[in-house]
Specification:
By secondary structure, the protein is of the alpha/beta class. It has helices spanning 18-21, 51-66, 70-83, 100-107, 179-184, 199-209, 227-238, 257-273, 299-310, 315-345, 350-409, 414-460, 491-515, 520-565, 567-599, 608-631; strands at residues 88-93, 124-129, 134-139, 144-148, 170-176, 186-190, 214-220, 244-250, 280-282. The two termini are 52 Å apart.
Length: 632
């Protein structure tokens, strides 16, 4: 699809240049509705690191470059760039289909982001004020590809490809006429689903969280606060020490009126039980049975809360502490490498020194093979754990099927058991299975992760981060219902018919045998008893056939439902191991860069002068590191 470029110079200059942006009138685009009046927002000042922090980071970058650690210097520079920001940046995060884009459309009073069941955000979308509404598309290297007019059609190649094909790799910058964004100097970020197992989208979310000031967590009222959402909040938000957070409940209007307030209370209680001090807001005006949540309902209340964020006095300290901690960890890599270089350089015999260098290079090549072998072993452990998961699914599937069949086989009324008890009993079994599988598989993953990290730390003095993720949850079985229709005969009705028939026969027999001179009691007993015996045989056969039908449906339905529900668990397990291995490979690359830097040019002649130079460099880095520790 071709897109019209309305202004070739759009976004060539930063959008922070408000004077240039305001030259165009706010109603320049006739298709843009005039925004409604919103609560005044206090202005967030552009953030720049303090002189002391800026100075120590600059010194770190310079010292690392001078000693051959250019990669580490580049990493610190990225940290510095992320810390220094022109706007107060807020990321909107949440799992798939939690209403993030709809929330942003309502917050900014524009229907500019794609919404619905299928159009799902696949790219990080930054939203800023601009007098002329438009969007710019950038590739993975942050190179601008094109400018597009801001319309729903412009998003067609940028939404998630959930059913085949690859997502677009890059990001989008949107400029809209929002007085609220302009006056508050705020930038919003729309992100892909945080619970999505697509690794590219996970990276997009992580990139969005890097350097943002606040986070709004969108939670669907229909399925509020799953375990994956809990893990995401713990590991991606709280662990990153993001200073400002709020949780916004979306789609509350889809809940029955009498249950809405209970859903909000449940979310608050759940957060409290998890020891998460996060305020809960309702995204838009929704009818409730009382006014107990009026103070946290609607976009005006949300905007007032954000206004408190932008002037929070500890914002500076929080960002600077984050930047210093990241810088300190990278400096430790360099210090360790210089200490090794110093050890080699202090060898006075030049021939021995050369031999040490040759040995180091040989050892480095051997250790790279060790890295590779560890990755292969971890991949093998992933396969073993995957097999364990499948075996447990199969084991529990068979045992649950057998238990339910046993209960059905001993039910006096199979039809009633199927319609009234089967779904309830199944959900209990599924819940117990989910907990058991989660405990077994998660324990194996933790053991494998500890082994992997310990092996790497022991050999390479490097640490691999491990983020847990729920593999099996009871929420996976929430959609279970008894949807299979079995054609049962109405046994109660048939019993009534038999009773009436038996009574009629008994009366008829009494009359007949009385006329013949037989005793009435003997006569009626003979006919009534005979009828009862026949009817009981008939009903036993009917009940046995119904039990067989129920058992057959259980054998067909239960294993298939378990397999379908736990298919996501298989993807989650693979994703966890892949994440661990990828983190290890990052550590491997950092370790390799440091080791190469430690032995590069080590054979430069100069003897004492060279040793002194290394010692001075080491002392300089250690001094910078100590300064950072004092500042933290």
């Amino acid at each position: 699809m071709a897109y019209k470029v309305s202004n070739a110079d759009f976004f060539k200059k930063p959008l922070t240049d408000h004077e240039e942006a305001k030259e165009a009138p706010l109603n320049a685009d006739k298709n843009v509705q005039k925004p409604e009046e919103t609560p005044a927002v206090k202005r967030a000042e552009p953030f720049k690191l303090g002189k002391a922090v800026e100075s120590v980071m600059t010194d770190s970058i310079k010292a690392l470059k001078e000693n051959g650690f250019s990669d580490l210097a580049l990493e610190i520079n990225k940290i510095r760039q992320s810390a220094n920001r022109e706007r107060f940046t807020i990321a909107v995060v949440g799992e798939f289909s939690r209403g993030k884009s709809t929330f942003l459309n309502k917050l900014l009073e524009r229907d500019f982001l794609p919404v619905g069941d299928l159009p799902t955000t696949a790219v990080m979308t930054r939203i800023r004020y601009h007098a002329k509404e438009a969007m710019a598309v950038f590739n993975e290297k942050n190179e601008k590809l094109e400018e597009r007019e801001l319309s729903q059609n412009a998003w067609e190649d940028l939404v998630a490809r959930n059913f085949g094909g690859e997502d677009f790799r890059g990001n989008v910058l949107v400029g809209i006429q929002s007085k609220w964004l302009d006056e508050g100097n705020i930038e919003m970020i729309d992100t892909p689903g945080a619970g999505d197992l697509n690794e590219a989208r996970i990276k997009v979310v992580n990139d969005a969280l890097l350097g943002c000031d606040g986070v709004i967590i969108a939670v669907n009222a229909i399925a509020a606060l799953s375990m994956t959402e809990k893990i995401f909040i713990e590991e991606r938000l709280l662990a990153r020490k993001i200073p400002f957070m709020m949780l916004v409940v979306t789609k509350l209007d889809l809940i029955p009126l009498q249950e809405r307030a209970g859903v909000v209370r449940y979310i608050r209680q759940k957060l409290a039980s998890w020891k998460m001090d996060i305020p809960v807001y309702i995204s838009y005006q929704t009818e409730l049975e009382d006014d107990s949540f009026d103070d946290v309902m609607g976009m005006d209340k949300i905007k007032l809360k954000i206004s408190e964020w932008v002037t929070y006095p500890e914002r500076v300290q929080t960002i600077e502490t984050w930047a210093l901690e990241k810088t300190a960890s990278l400096l430790e890599y360099a210090i360790s490498a210089l200490q090794e270089k110093q050890r080699i350089a202090e060898e006075s015999d030049q021939e021995k020194r050369k031999q040490i260098i040759l040995d180091k290079r040989q050892k480095l090549a051997e250790l790279l093979l060790v890295w590779g072998e560890l990755h292969v072993q971890m991949q093998k452990k992933c396969t073993d754990c995957y097999d364990l998961l499948l075996s447990k699914i199969d084991e529990y599937s068979k045992s649950i099927t057998e238990r339910l069949q046993y209960e059905a086989g001993h039910a006096n009324n199979p039809q009633k058991w199927w319609t009234e008890d089967f779904a309830y009993r199944s959900k209990i079994e599924f819940t117990n299975m989910a907990v058991s599988i989660e405990n077994i598989v998660s324990r194996r993953i933790r053991e494998d992760a500890r082994w992997y990290s310990s092996a790497i730390e022991k050999t390479f003095q490097s640490y691999v981060a491990f983020q847990e993720k729920a593999i099996s949850e009871k929420e996976m079985f929430e959609n279970f219902s008894c949807t299979e229709n079995i054609s049962f005969g109405d046994l109660d009705k048939q019993r009534n018919v038999v009773r009436i028939a038996s009574a009629v026969l008994s009366i008829s027999g009494f009359t007949l045998f009385s006329a013949m001179g037989f005793l009435p009691i003997v006569a009626t007993m003979g006919i009534g008893t005979g009828t009862s015996i026949l009817s009981e045989k008939f009903f036993k056969k009917e009940i046995a056939e119904q039990k067989d039908m129920v058992k057959k449906e259980i054998a067909n339905y239960v294993p298939a439902f378990i397999q379908e529900s736990l298919a996501e668990s298989e993807d989650r397990l693979t994703s966890v191991y892949d994440n661990i291995i990828q983190e290890a490979k990052k550590s491997e690359q950092n370790w390799l860069n440091v080791q190469k830097a430690a032995i590069d040019n080590i054979n430069i002649p100069g003897e004492g002068k060279y040793v002194t130079q290394i010692a001075d460099s080491l002392l300089k880095l250690q001094k910078i590191s100590n300064t950072i520790k004092e500042m933290r």
